[in-house]
Amino acid sequence: MPERIDQLRTEAEADLAAVTDAGSLEQFRIKYLGSKGALKTLMAALKEVPKEQKAAFGQGANALKQSIQQAFDDKRASLDGGGAAASAASGTSPQSKGTTNLDITEPGLPPRLGRTHIITQTIDELIDVFGRMGFDVATGPEVEDEHHNFVALNIPSDHPARDPHDNFYVKGGKQGDLHLLRSQTSTIQIRVMEKTKPPVRVVAMGRVYRPDEIDATHMPMFHQVEGLYVDRNVSMADLKTTLIQFAHAMFGPEADVRLRPSFFPFTEPSAELEVKIDLHGTGDWQWMEIGGCGMVDPAVFEAVGYDPEEWTGFAFGLGIERLAMRKYGIGDIRWLYENDVRFLRQF
């Protein structure tokens, strides 16, 4: 048995010395190191070795295997990538026979990039439109107290808007004060005026919450943009001019604006804002209600410490989902939140 080990070592050294290219190196690997090579056959002969010689034979066979493997690796390195070349020639890798190589010259598939959600796109566009008119962007908390959500906005305690069925009230607050998920972004206007001396020109955007039944046009959570402009001698003409500029920027130069008389506790006079737009780009121009607006009620100014005899202002509130749906011809608000990539990739 020791003679077989010595004979195999001599043969391997002679064969390896004759290797001059990648192809012959691969043939050497198969002959000696392959799954059916000489070393595998030698190890299989261990069962024929007498018991008292098994340990010595096993050590000698393992030493031979390591020696041939090291000699093979050195030869492959000296051939400057011969193993990889042999793999390309045979369609296999030196380490794993039968494994197809990667063709690095084949063009790869570009990764799919994400897209900005249509709501975020609309918010960014609104920030740009009103930013060019001089409006700053303001934010505020989504969990509000009754003072900012109702009292400071001139909404009395017996007003239907404060009904528990129309709000998401939450537990907590100092001294037992009721808190709720804000039902309008007008709360941000109050917070801005509490901390800022006039003149003020801001737009406030964010999520608002109302327990509406879910259907094609209603969700219990949606987004609003509120605008506020406070200065001396502000009038309804300033409000309408701002809204006309907004409509032209969002829906095109042919879009028109009209104000229908309405009522809101925090504005006086108040109006519903309607915009005439081209639905789906088909030439079918229709009037669509997109929000409310009006002159800030003097009671609101008094609640934040503004002198209503000196300062006047206007405010407006628009539903962002409604704007997106009108502009892009989206027929169901639920589509915006189903996260169907086939839908979202269209915008």
Please give a structural write-up.
This protein has two domains: 2-90, no CATH class; 118-344, Bira Bifunctional Protein, Domain 2 (BirA Bifunctional Protein, domain 2, 2-Layer Sandwich). The protein contains twelve helices and ten strands. It has helices at residues 2-17, 22-33, 38-44, 54-78, 82-90, 118-131, 146-149, 186-195, 236-251, 298-304, 320-328, 341-344; strands at 136-138, 143-145, 168-170, 179-181, 200-209, 221-231, 256-264, 267-279, 284-296, 312-319. The strands form two sheets. The chain has a seven-stranded mixed sheet with strand order 1-5-6-10-9-8-7, sandwiched between helices. A three-stranded antiparallel sheet has the order 2-4-3. Helix 2 (22-33) runs antiparallel to helix 4 (54-78), helix 2 crosses helix 5 and helix 6 (118-131) crosses helix 11 (320-328). The model is unreliable at 82-99 (pLDDT under 50).
In short:
The chain is built from 12 helices and 10 strands.
Helix-strand blueprint:
Blueprint lengths: L1 H16 L4 H12 L4 H7 L9 H25 L3 H9 L27 H14 L4 E3 L4 E3 H4 L18 E3 L8 E3 L4 H10 L4 E10 L11 E11 L4 H16 L4 E9 L2 E13 L4 E13 L1 H7 L7 E8 H9 L12 H4 L3
Parallel strand pairs: 1-5
Antiparallel strand pairs: 2-4, 3-4, 5-6, 6-10, 7-8, 8-9, 9-10
Helix pairs in contact: 1-4, 2-4, 2-5, 6-11
- Portion of residues in beta strands equals 15-25%
Order of helices and strands: HHHHHHEEHEEHEEHEEEHEHH
Quick check: average pLDDT?
85
**Gyration radius, in Å:** 39 Å
Helical segment tally?
12
Overall geometry comes to elongated
* End-to-end distance: 77 Å
Helix % is: 25-40%
Structural class: alpha+beta
Biggest sheet statistics: 7 strands, mixed
CATH class of the largest domain: Alpha Beta
Q: Count all strands and give the number.
A: 10
Total domain units:
2
Task: Give, in spatial order, the strands making up the sheet with the most strands.
Answer: 1-5-6-10-9-8-7
CATH superfamily of the largest domain: Bira Bifunctional Protein, Domain 2
Question: What is the third-level CATH name, the topology of the largest domain?
Answer: BirA Bifunctional Protein, domain 2
Low-confidence stretches: 82-99
